[in-house]
Design a protein that fits this description.
The complex is a heterodimer of chains A (157) and B (159). With 157 residues, chain A is of the alpha+beta class. Chain A is 47% helix and 18% strand. In chain A, helix 2 (53-61) crosses helix 6 (128-154) and helix 3 (65-77) crosses helix 5 (93-105). Chain B is of the alpha+beta class and 159 residues long. In chain B, strand 2 (52-53) and strand 3 form a beta hairpin. Classes of the chains: A alpha+beta (157), B alpha+beta (159).
């Protein structure tokens, strides 16, 4: 669902509308492209530059670089103990526990106890509101580009 | 214009290591840069396609875009002009949901105009997520860019 094809407009105006997310290793990680003919985006009345509650929640939980690093380490390595995450994050165990609590509240991680150890696991499904938000913001800009185009037609040369 | 994924002139991936990007919308308009610049920087014109505003093309100018309140958004975007490079570049902060204390979210919007055959290539780039991520954006910390770059793998299982 994250890939769509680009398209040209019919009246001599070319458009590329895409969201592009890049890794630091100079390769394309994810591209969202929406064709101009995809009317459900350009005319969506709910399109606005605000932020849905769900996305806001996830953005805030991931606003901290250490939390992002912990979350991604969990997605990369699978289930980890607090102990292992502490040595990975390079901060104190109480700090890691605090970060994990915030991630847990945003439903980005789940935990289970096994004896004295607590194991944490990433819940990437919780990122869905953020992905949806990025999609919606792209629709906002596309809509504004359409309006800009209309204005330019009306303006004196 | 060719497909952005294969055209190195417009493909941000070609210099991704130097300048990672988050969200890009671009289009070629059959109008001269002078006209585009007016539409981007004259408040009454800007209001006709963006939102009501008190914008002035002066670096440091704080202004707002205002629209009707909507669910999850009070209709206000708080901005500050960062770059005014006539006919070429315009940039401002873009904040919704109030200041940091209120948990608001912040981005930087950069408009780039480039003369092209028969018109002007307009590129809008929205980047950064909060002021506290600007350092991260430079690679000093674990940045949003890298995180989002890895989103595909992370959300690979999503429908």
């Amino acid at each position: 669902m994250l890939r769509r094809k680009a398209g040209d407009r019919n009246f001599g105006i070319h458009e590329n509308y895409f969201m592009i997310f890049l890794t630091n290793h100079n390769h394309l990680a994810m591209v969202l492209t929406v064709t101009p003919s995809n009317a459900s985006y350009g005319t969506n009345p709910r399109t606005n530059p605000g932020t849905s509650q769900g996305a806001n929640h996830v953005f805030r939980a991931l606003a901290d670089p250490t939390r992002r690093a912990i979350f991604e380490e969990l997605t990369r390595q699978g289930e980890q103990t607090v102990h292992a995450l502490t040595s990975y994050a390079g901060v104190s165990q109480p700090a890691v526990s605090k970060h994990l609590t915030v991630l847990k509240r945003a439903k980005l991680v789940r935990h289970r106890r096994d004896g004295r150890e607590t194991h944490y696991r990433a819940q990437p499904d919780a990122l869905a509101p953020m992905v949806n938000w990025l999609d919606q913001y792209g629709a906002f800009w596309r809509d504004r580009f359409d309006r800009l185009e209309e204005l330019l037609e009306r303006m004196e040369p | 214009m060719s497909n952005p994924a294969t055209n190195p002139a417009t493909n941000p991936a070609s210099n991704a290591a130097e300048t990672p990007r988050s969200l890009v919308v671009e289009r070629v308009f059959p109008h001269p840069p002078e006209k585009l610049w007016r539409a981007l920087t004259e408040s009454p014109l800007l209001a006709q396609w963006m939102m009501n505003n008190d914008f002035q093309p002066v670096v440091g100018r704080k202004f707002q875009f205002r629209a009707d309140p909507q669910p999850n958004w009070n209709g206000i975007v708080d901005c500050e002009v960062l770059v005014v490079d006539p006919l070429r570049r315009l940039s401002y902060n873009w904040g919704v949901g109030g200041g940091d204390a209120a948990g608001g979210l912040h981005w930087v919007v950069l408009w780039t105009l480039t003369p092209s055959e028969g018109g002007t290539h307009v590129r809008m780039e929205q980047s950064g997520f909060r002021p506290d991520q600007q350092a991260a954006y430079q690679g000093a910390k674990y940045g949003w860019q890298k995180f989002i770059g890895n989103l595909e793998r992370v959300v690979g299982g999503l429908a």
